[in-house]
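Collaborator request log, item 7. Partner lab (contact: R.S.) asked for a structural prediction of TetR/AcrR family transcriptional regulator to inform their binding assays.
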Amino acid sequence: MQNLLSNLKITINEKLYVKDPETSELGRNILKNSIILIDEIGFEAFTFKKLGEKIQSNESSIYRYFENKHKLLVYLTSWYWSWIEYRLAFATTNVSNPIEKLEKAIRLVTENVVDDNTTPHINEEILNRIIVGEFTKTLMTKEVDNENKEGFFLVYKRVINRLIDIIKEVNPDYPYAKSLASSIVEGALHQHFLKNHLKTITNLSEKECATEFYTDMTKKILA
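Returned to partner:
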């Protein structure tokens, strides 16, 4: 799968950036170090000034790529969900057994992420930590409806729609496939957050994975 992924170029909504950061060394450096810095200090404390200091570049140079830090965060989350979508497609396309396909899909959207080394400027393991802690901040804003119309969350919805289709393959009569699919994806992020920060209100740990929980729950619901 990694060999296939290494040959793919992830395409992001052009409205999220002023200049495509993938087209220059500085742009890729902005992506790489914004991931590291957001992970270190959190999105609230993150600023383009601090990023500029980290990459030893003028703050104004970052604005030539991104209008503001919100769009940068949406860009990073869109990149992440595109990466998940590619992996999901490759893992399930040639699987004919619906239950096996469901298990593979749930694993991919719930498991602990490890950097795949095919994108040297994007550390997926660190980016996953940002998704767990910060992704809701891209959605829960006053601008969400307008941004949704602009297609900012299209790839995220495509991931969920792939899971919806697989759920329907397992049980075409189940009436809540959309709610179940979105609950698996969102719920897994929340459970990872609880595991990392509020351990007393989740059964998950380093030994007990979100994948096992959501696979067990989903198969029982669809039985």
